[in-house]
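Hi, here's the filled form for the chain we discussed.

Project: internal
Contact: R.S.
Residues: 535
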Amino acid sequence: MQHQALKLTKMKVSSSIVTRIFNINLRHLSTAAAANAVTTTNAATAQPKTVTSGYIFNKLYVVGSTGAKVSDVLQNIMRTGQHINKKTLVDCFKDLRKNGRYQQCLEILDWFEKGRVDPLGRDFAMRVDILHKLKGLAEAEKYFDGLPSDFKNHYVYTALLSCYCADLEADKALATFKKMDELGFSSHVLAFNNLLGLYVRIKQPEKVPELISEMKKRKVPLNSHTYTYWIQSYRLRGDLEGVERVFHETQEDSLVKDDWVIHSNVASAFIEFGQFEKAISFLENLENVLNNSNNARYGAYQHLISLYASVGKLDSVIQTWNKLMSNFNVDNNQCYFPSRKPNFKVDNNQCYLSLLQALSRLDDIKGLENYFCEWESICKIYDDRLPTVVIGAYLRHDMLEEAGLLLEDATKKVGKLLRMPHVKFMNYYFEKGQTEGALKHMEAAIVSNWKPIAEKLDPCFQHFKDQKDVDGLEKFCQLLKRAQALDTKAYLWLLQTYVDAEKTAPDMRERIEEDGINVTPELEELLERVCPTRF
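And the returned structure, exactly as it came back:
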């Protein structure tokens, strides 16, 4: 009876339960270890120090690369007499999730269960979300289906809805929303925002205003994400007046009027349609918002730098950069976030990367070189993304010697071949019609574990087709097979090149069969010309 009572009461979610802070009860530790690690509110002695989520984040972030387990790290922290509460660990979970550390997130949820922390509806929801990110939709659905109906509250249903929307499963998403409506779970902003995001991603922006109207009818409060999707829906339809109308509505809402994401989305819409004067006005508004904020985020400045570069405002790029540097204490290789939790640090390579990308877009070679040298003089971790930006700019200006010297220097500093700089060189040589140089750098990129994106290889295939260079394309395909299997599209390019060159390949059918390619009618037609069937 006692077990049943606990099961019925402790697993139900209410706003009061959600806000409670749980002490981690490690019954699987020895009595002595548990006594040192876990404290109670009734303890007469001084309370042990409660660690911050930033401190735990720094410990758990590197777990994947060290081979350690989350449970071992947390136990070691608690054995030192430090206290971990559930709210702190949930905050850490969210930061790890933002940084793509999904395995660590799953282990934190396992820790909750093994430590016999009362699992709440939000715990189940978090597991649905992480299983989806880590193992796919089928695993998330399987876990959801296995939960007792009493545990499937609005948090859990919303998590499943989010999975369907992320995977663009519109039918399943709408069916889930309908079920939530029947259960009284749908009148929450997150549920609506998931559908709004889905409509934007599947290019059905006309449905967004309808859903917004439904939210207002149900008195569901709109938040920053809601307004952002609403703005994007008008942007997709090319309705800049609609974008402005929504923006003016946000200025009447004190909770979102100074939201930098909304301001940047409005500016981006005008940039996309070439209305730079109007865009600059919104960017200046955004800059004022950031300058007058006590809680401005690093990402906001980074995005503002990029947007100013998009409208050709070099002076504003540098001005924003200087503001970023003055607002954030940059110490060698770390940016410290005054508004974030203590001990939360971010590699300042990202700061310089955003600036170099902006200067590259503006073709400011002199500024690019100066700030790159400045970064090299202070960096502790040599990030090959930064020299890649400079190399790309050099190559666009046919500064081949400078690009080559930088590639050589960066390779020495990193101590290994660099993928993306070699890809830059490969593309450059293809554009110049120099096959030998292109294939040389392609091989270097593949050796350094480059995984090509199929769509971005089209210009390379087009080069060989235009030149009717069957031999060169065969070498290209052999190199490509070292990185990934040839697909139907690659064989189409290959066969079309053979046809244009008026050459045959008697073994082509055998090669296609060995690679497991399905012979489509288009492929068959080309094969008849390149490798005719003999009867």
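Let me know if anything looks off before we file it.
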